[in-house]
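Board notes (copied after class):
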Amino acid sequence: MLILYQNFRFALADIFLKRALALLLLAGLTFGMFVFGVTPLLASGPMSASSNALLLAMWVATALIYPFLRRSAEWFVDKIILKRTNYTDLAARLSQALDRCETPAAILGEASRILAPAMSAESIEWSESDEAGPDIRVQQDRRSAVAAVPTTESPHYLLSIRDLSGGRRLLSDDIAMLERGALLVARRIDAVRSMQERYRHDVQEQEMRKLAAEAELRALRAQVNPHFLFNALTTIGYLIQTAPDRAVGTLLRLSGLLRGVLKAGEEFVTIGEELDLIEAYLDIERARFEDRLRVHIDVPWELRGLRIPALVIQPLVENAIKHGISACLAGGEVRISARPHETAAVLVSVTDTGVGTTVSVLERRKARGLGLTNIERRLERYGSGPGAITIRSTPGIGTTVEIRVALQPGERAGGPPPAVASAKSS
């Protein structure tokens, strides 16, 4: 067999050696059992029932021991004759190494580095291919081969093995290992491409969400109610004739309000900054409504330093006055309050004691209005989830709008503002 393997290394020579050696071992075992087991039984005289049972047991033992003989023959051929690496362990080591690679080039380079010494090759080179070729092409002298990496999408790759040392030639198990290695490489490349594609998709989606949020914020900043401006300017014109000092103060507050609403500032402001903008708006409305408008703000100081999306409270106050208080001859009260919701959110409510309305009217206003829809989308986009706005209204009693605002990472609704906390810790 060794002479046959040395002179005729055909593709299945390794399998032939393993099977032939296993059969020789089985034949030797059978011969030994016949000489030392069956022959004494035959020489002892007629076969008894116990002799037949013993003979049957030897036949069964021969059948059961063959898998062990076959594995022993395979180990002997791989380790002693061919001096091969254990390809099962090699495949496991290759798979673990490829899992640590994050680019196709790194994956192919690592596979070449691991497979080359196992195949007794000076190097294994890889290259790109526009088309997926056959799984593996072996040269006639069986000292070089090209294995295709069967990736799902192009570009595809080729692993080229050549210059085997020690006169070694590629046999069937070597080719099977190359095919298995190429398949492991292809699976890892496909996984990396899929992860990169998901990452690009997530980045694009985040960019689109950011652009949409900026557009909605610009729309809110540009949505200054013309009716409010008309009433404010009319009030200022009236005050110029009756109380010039109040007219100047109201005009300054109006200009400050417009700058605060229309400026291209940050997407997030503190609750305190939002309340300052609301106070400027309410000062102007008080000049128009005088005693008909009463305001009560109940926001704890420890919540005023928390950051929230800009312009999520001011439009609610504007709606309360526009749809609730202005339609009531006796006027009414607007109450603004905030309280912690668990530790990662704040509940802000705006309540008016105006005319109130029905559910159907509320739905129509919400469908037509830009403000509430934008606020709801922005709150959902910034982590508040669906159902961040709750509206309750009763005709003749008033309306309450409550929003759930998710806090930014690192902030807690139950503690002091970040600036206060850092000052205390220092």
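Comment from the instructor: The chain has a mean pLDDT of 77. The CA atoms of residues 176 and 324 lie 80 Å apart.
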